């Protein structure tokens, strides 16, 4: 059985279209992950249990996405020493600036690696998780290098009108 080392958690089903971008990139890189809805406000006990058991279950990185009063990544960081990568989900009312500020401004001692707002942030969260795991996994490091090289290769040298 392949060991799952990345947990992708989110505050609500409504965050999934954004957080799926993190899952997609991990699929591309061949990194197994699990996905869970864990809300800081609506299911605090689930958050606690998840954070408490994360290390023992073999997780190595947690990607946490939430929107609005986005307390999930920070609360998860308070409960586990695993690296927590935070994704501010774009909100309708405040375009995700609320989510960003809720996630990024952590008190000293409990870091959250905060990504950009929305889909780009979720993709980068997946890449960040892969980069962390690649430190101990030479095959994954090779796949990540190839992925990065292919992206660079796909960028044209000059703009076109098409
Ligand atoms: C947050 O509230 C979630 O992360 C979500 O982004 C936001 C709205 O949740 P729903 O009302 O759509 O379930 O906790």
Taken together, the total number of domains comes to 1
CATH topology value: Rossmann fold
Major beta-sheet overview: 5 strands, parallel
What structural class should be given to the helix and strand makeup?
alpha/beta
Strand order of the largest sheet: 2-1-3-4-5
Span between termini: 47 Å
Bound molecules: 5-O-phosphono-beta-D-ribofuranose
Give the overall form.
globular
Broad CATH class:
Alpha Beta
Q: Which architecture name does CATH use? A: 3-Layer(aba) Sandwich
Helices and strands, in N-to-C order? EHEHEHEHEHH
Describe the structure.
Its EC number is 5.4.99.18. Keywords: Isomerase, Purine biosynthesis. Catalyzes the conversion of N5-carboxyaminoimidazole ribonucleotide (N5-CAIR) to 4-carboxy-5-aminoimidazole ribonucleotide (CAIR). Pathway: Purine metabolism; IMP biosynthesis via de novo pathway; 5-amino-1-(5-phospho-D-ribosyl)imidazole-4-carboxylate from 5-amino-1-(5-phospho-D-ribosyl)imidazole (N5-CAIR route): step 2/2. The protein is α/β, with parallel strands linked by helices and 162 residues long. The chain has one domain (6-153): Rossmann fold, CATH 3.40.50. The chain is built from six helices and five strands. A five-stranded parallel beta sheet has the order 2-1-3-4-5, sandwiched between helices. It is globular, with a radius of gyration of 16 Å. The protein starts with 5 loop residues before the first strand and ends in a 9-residue tail after the last helix. 5-O-phosphono-beta-D-ribofuranose binds at residues 11-12, 14-15, 39, 41, 66-68, 89.
């Amino acid at each position: 059985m392949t060991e799952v080392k990345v947990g992708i958690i989110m505050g609500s089903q409504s965050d999934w279209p954004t957080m799926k971008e993190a899952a997609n990139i991990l699929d591309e890189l061949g990194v197994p992950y699990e996905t869970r809805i864990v809300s800081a406000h609506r299911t605090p006990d689930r958050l606690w249990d998840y954070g408490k058991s994360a290390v023992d279950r073999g997780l190595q990185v947690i990607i946490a996405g939430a929107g609005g009063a986005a307390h999930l990544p920070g609360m998860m960081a308070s409960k586990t020493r695993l690296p927590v990568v935070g994704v501010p989900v774009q909100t309708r009312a405040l375009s995700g600036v609320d989510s960003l500020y809720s996630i990024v401004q952590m008190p000293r001692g409990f870091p959250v690696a905060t990504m950009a707002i929305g889909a780009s942030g979720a993709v980068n969260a997946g890449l960040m998780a892969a980069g962390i795991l690649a430190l101990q996994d030479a095959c994954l490091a090779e796949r990540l290098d190839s992925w990065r090289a292919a992206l660079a290769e796909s960028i044209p040298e000059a703009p076109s009108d098409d």
